Amino acid sequence: MKRLLRLAAWAIAIGGAIDPAMALPGASRARLAVVVPEPSSAAAAAARDRVARDLSASYDIVPHLVTDAAAAIVIGDRYPHEAVPDAMLVATVSAADAAPGVRIVHIDAPSAVPAATLIHLDVELEASLAAGRTTDVTASIAGLETARVSHRWTSEHERWHASIDAVPVGDPPYTVRVRLTDSAKATSVKKRGIAETVPAIDATRIASDSDPTVADVVVDIRRTPLRVEFYDPRPSWATTFLRRALEADPRFQVATLSVTSRGVFAQTGGAVAPGDARLDAFDVVVLGGLDRLSAAEASALDRYMRTRGGAVVVVPDQRIDAGPARDLVAGDLAERLLEQPATLTVTPPAPALRASELLVMRLVAPPSEVIARVPDADPVKALPVIVSAPRGIGRLLLSGAMDAWRFRAADNAAFDRFWQSTIAGLALAAPPPIAIGIEPPLLRPGEPATLIVRLHPPDATAVSAAIDGDQPIRLIPDAEAGVYRGRFVAGPTPGLSTVEVRAAAAQPLAASHRFVVSADAVRLPPDGARLALLASSHRGIDVSPDRIPDLERFIRGAVRAPAVRQVRHPMRSAWWMLPFAVCLSAEWWLRRRRGLR
Length: 597
What we know:
Blueprint (H helix, E strand, L loop, with lengths): L1 H17 L3 E6 L3 E5 L6 H14 L4 E3 L8 E6 L12 E6 L6 E8 L3 E2 L5 E10 L5 E8 L2 E9 L4 E10 L7 E9 L4 E5 L2 E5 L15 E8 L4 E7 L4 H11 L4 E10 L2 E5 L15 E4 L7 H14 L2 E4 L9 H6 L3 E11 L1 E2 L7 E8 L7 E5 L10 E8 L2 E6 L10 H20 L4 E6 L8 E8 L5 E7 L3 E3 L2 E2 L5 E7 L5 E10 L4 E9 L12 H8 L4 E2 L4 H11 L4 E6 L8 H17 L4
Parallel strand pairs: 2-3, 2-4, 4-5, 5-35, 7-15, 16-17, 16-19, 19-20, 20-26
Antiparallel strand pairs: 1-36, 6-8, 8-11, 9-10, 9-12, 12-15, 13-14, 17-18, 21-23, 22-24, 24-25, 25-26, 27-28, 28-32, 29-30, 29-33, 31-32, 33-34
């Protein structure tokens, strides 16, 4: 015992003299930039103080945009003066001393839709001092109202997201006019026995760019089909019946590549294997037979999503345990088997699905979108089954309803309708190989405009553009790879014009875009959605000052403290003096008991 105590004391003394260093894993505080561009309002200052107070315990708060910030929160009604890095996560608080009333903040509409398809509009509204009022949002085409929704405001400062499905009327391209009216002031009259609602707002007044209650958007007809490829490293019932659902819809052009045996495969519609450059011509790839997927194919599909911007729909028919497919999907998956088939809770307006063999996700990180859940009265237990998540500039959709195809005839063929609408949405959201945009999208005669061309993937060369085939536009490469910009002036007379763009790549690319020149075009005020657009382009959310708790929950879920290797010197702790003294004292006491000095 005496020797052990003496050795322990010597070990502590030698360790203190050497002072060894140890590298241990640890966590540091992430840096968060909370920016209020000047000049600021009283509402912006109050929101900044609250955000800084609530998040200072978890993050290092800095008042300016810095390159090492994990995320930024911009508060106010304008862009910050500093440049915002493209890769930075940005959330915004639209805080301004707004004038009383209701205004349109932003309208999200597709540039083109397939024939015989409703035009889906997402309209963001903001109300100030409008509690108790009811606002009608109408969409009209060629003077004919085709859709209407209403909302009653419950607080003094509130935002509301309106979803409208407008019916195309007349000849394309369609100019859809979105108008806000106060239904509380509307009167009802009868004309020829039919009740009609007459808004209190004078319908004869001419809307202008300074009116935030009226705005136009232009939507054209998509003349190219939605191209979808089914790739099965081995045959799968799950993808077979999904493919039949799409083949029954004339909007889709379906190609199939199914490996039936080693060196034997079935190919239709010009389908190609992952890794082939021609895969970029497809908008969506549906993947089945996951247990036979190779690492090279998984890597090629990941590139297809991140660089090309396409969507990959993963349809497993059994549990995914390991391998390249598991790496492609990621996430925390668990298998759940039900005794009876259950009707999944889906996001409207998608039709409901039935399934009994499920792959559920225990945790879904923002900004993923949950499309279907396990039915449960408790929202916490309603685990996601079908989830769509961003992957680069593309998307990955995982369907955990493994045996939904068994119930494809139930509920008036809801299985077919669900997948037709879901994959159509993914295909329409996928950028084409040449994406053409015009700013502003609505032009008046003789107005200057900017042509923006984005290439997917961005390795094409020799890009050229012209209007109506006889007015060339000089394109200049932008700072972003694959982006070109050019200036032009709209024609002197109202009408339709066509922009044609060509590029040289592995296969020659060509695209065209029609735009409308109209003297009656109505646009949103220029500052109507600046911060909302900043958040949407940087994977963040935009909230009003009364929804700051939602912003804080988003930041806490999206920004984690980075793991670091910290160097520590454990022998520098003063607490080592206690065991050192105990060892020496105990050894001395034992010696004294035996009469030793």
